[in-house]
Amino acid sequence: MVVPHAGYMYSGPIAAHAYRRLAASGEHASIVILGPNHTGEGTGLSTMNNGQWSTPLGNVEIDNELAETIAKKSGLVDVEDEAHRHEHSIEVQLPFLQYLYNGSFKFVPVCMMLQDLETSRNIGMAVAESVKGRDVVILASSDWTHYESQKVAEAKDMQAIEAVLRMDETEFQRRIEESGLSACGFGPVTALTYAAKRLGAKKAELLSYKTSGDLTGDESAVVGYAAIAFAS
After folding, report:
1. Of the four listed, 41, 64, 88, 162, which is most buried by Cβ atoms within 10 Å?
2. Residues 49, 124, 34, 129, CA torsion sign
3. Quick one: fold of 2-231?
C-alpha cells in the first residue's frame, strides 16, 4: 500500500483508510516500509539490520534476516543508521501498525535518497524476491504535491496517481518528471508498484485522496495525500 507521512492531523485520516484495509487482512509477521530521505543524511539507499525503533507505543524490532536479504539481492542498499536518525517518513507509520498488531510484528526500513526509475526498480525487485514465501506487507510512504494551490495539486496528483492505478511505473515516473510534481516519495511508490507486479498483483485501488486544504480550509498552498492498495 501507499500511505502518507505528514503530521497526523493532516494526513492521518487518509492513512487510516490504508490501515483499515490492512486490518481486514489479519496480522502479518513483517512489514517492509519504503520511505524517501528528506534530510540528505546517510547514503543513497539505506536499511538497518539490527535493533529496535521506539515510539510512544513501545518498541518495534527490525527483521534482521529480511533486511539482510533485501540488501544482498539489491546490491545497492547499504546497512547503516545515519539515514534513519532524523527521518520521519518511515517512523510515522509504526504507531498505526502497533495499534493494529499490538507490537507483534517486525519491520524493515528502506530509506531512499536515490529515486530514479532504474534504482527504484532495483529496490522493487529486491523486495519482491526477498518476501516471496513470507507473510510480509510492503508499504511505500509518500506525500504528493507540496505547496501549490488546491486546483493545481489535485490535477497534478491525480494525473500521476492514474499511472499508479494502471500499475505502470515507467509512465508514473515520466508524469512526475514532465509535470514537476513534488511528490517526495515517488521512488518508494515506483518500487512498490514494480514489486507488486512481480508478486502477482493485478490491480491497484485508490482508497482516499485529500489535501491539507480539505482539512484546514486554506487552499492557497496545499500538500496532497493518498492511500492506495495493491491486490491480486
Report:
1. 41
2. negative
3. Protocatechuate 4,5-dioxygenase; Chain B (3.40.830)
